[in-house]
Amino acid sequence: MTIRKVLHFISFGIFLYLLADSFLHFELAATKNNAMTSMQKMEIDNLQNIDTVKQKAKDYLDTIRSVHRQYSAQSVINFWLLVGLILIQTVLLSMKLRTSSTKQNGR
Hints:
Blueprint: H1 2-24, H2 30-46, H3 50-105
């Protein structure tokens, strides 16, 4: 009985973590991000030197690449947590089915 409670607790903890992590990726301040993008576009429009524009573009590409790497790493963690959650739920279901079948057989 205690292993079932531990598995339920771990399962609930993984579920809450995945829920909180998903909530952190919501874009709540879309207008703020749009204003920031517009400011950056105006900054690029005001640049006269092509080398400066090239350097800004390279910096933006590096930023985009690092953000994608972070999201990829987080996605791998979330994937394995989901696999673990599915396995825990499968074990809990099999334990429940096993106990209900033994009760029906009178053991």
